[in-house]
Structures are given as structure tokens and as C-alpha cells.
Amino acid sequence: MSDATDYELSMMLRALVMESNRFLEIFSAAHELHPTDMTALNLIMTAPMTPGTLAKALNLSASATTSVLDRLERAGHVVRDRDPGDRRRVELRVLDTATELASTFFQPLARGYAAAWGRMSAEERQVVARFLAATIEATARVREEVVS
Question: What sections of the chain are H helices per DSSP?
């Protein structure tokens, strides 16, 4: 495996993405979330944002983003808070109950990852970390180029 080609690495990365998507689909189905809702929830968990920022990140119209937020709010996962310094500004926040629910579901996966990674040396983990960081950066860069 040390001589993995670009194609083989791409196919392995693709398999990881597909397995991750399958795992997310189980959670989504169990909690009646659309795939776009899951993506939105993940984005909001990552960094505080406004509905406009979320719309841009999801590549959705304002009305479609409102529908996503309405579903997430009804499900008890997200709230829209007014900025006390500027009442016109709305910030999205994931509720603690949603974070706890996700944590309960995703903890077995985190333990599985930790067990797999625990079999690697510190040097191997550094290589994996560099690979993932470079791959994430390349994906984001190309995504931006495609959208532009």
C-alpha cells in the first residue's frame, strides 16, 4: 500500500465519503432530517453563522434556506437568535439537546476511529493528518473554482 497511486487514493477517499454518507443517512432517517438539513446542521455546529451565510454555504436561495431552518427549528435542533447589539442580525445556534443527540449516535464511530488510529505510530498519524489537511484544502479550492 505504500506505493498507492493517485487513482487508488482517490478511490479509497471516495469509499470513505460513501461510508460516511451511509452512516449520516442512518442518523438522518432516524430523526427525519433531509440530507440538506444534516449538512446545514453540521455547518452551524462548526461555526456560528447567519441565515445568509448558511444559504451561501449550502448554495440555496433565501427561501429554500428558510425552509431548512424551519424544519431544523421544528425538530428542536436549531434556534435563530437576534443579535442584542443589532436586532436586524440573526445568528443561528445549535441547541444542546441536538448536540447531545448527535454525540450519542456518533460516539461509537469516534471510538471506532480511535481504535483504528491507535494502531498507528505518531509518525503515521502525522502523515495521515497532512494527507487529510491537503485533501480538504484541495477539495475546497476546486469547489470554489467550480462555483465561480
Answer: 6-30, 35-46, 51-58, 62-74, 96-118, 122-147
Average pLDDT value over all residues in the chain: 92
CA angle, 142 as apex, 136 and 143 as ends, to 5°? Answer: 85
Query: 80 is written with which cell numbers?
Result: 435563530
Give the 3-state secondary structure of 34-62. Answer: CHHHHHHHHHHHHCCECHHHHHHHHCCCH
Residue 2 pLDDT: 64
Q: What residues form DSSP beta bridges with 86?
A: 83
The pTM for the full model equals 0.77
Q: How far is CA 7 from CA 52, 96, 106, 145, in A?
A: 37, 41, 30, 22
Decide: residue 4, CB within 10 A, 0-12 exposed, 13-18 middle, 19+ buried.
exposed
Cell 446545514, located at residue: 40
Tens digits of per-residue pLDDT, 29-57? Answer: 888 899 899 999 999 999 889 999 999 99
Quote the cell numbers at residue 47: 461555526
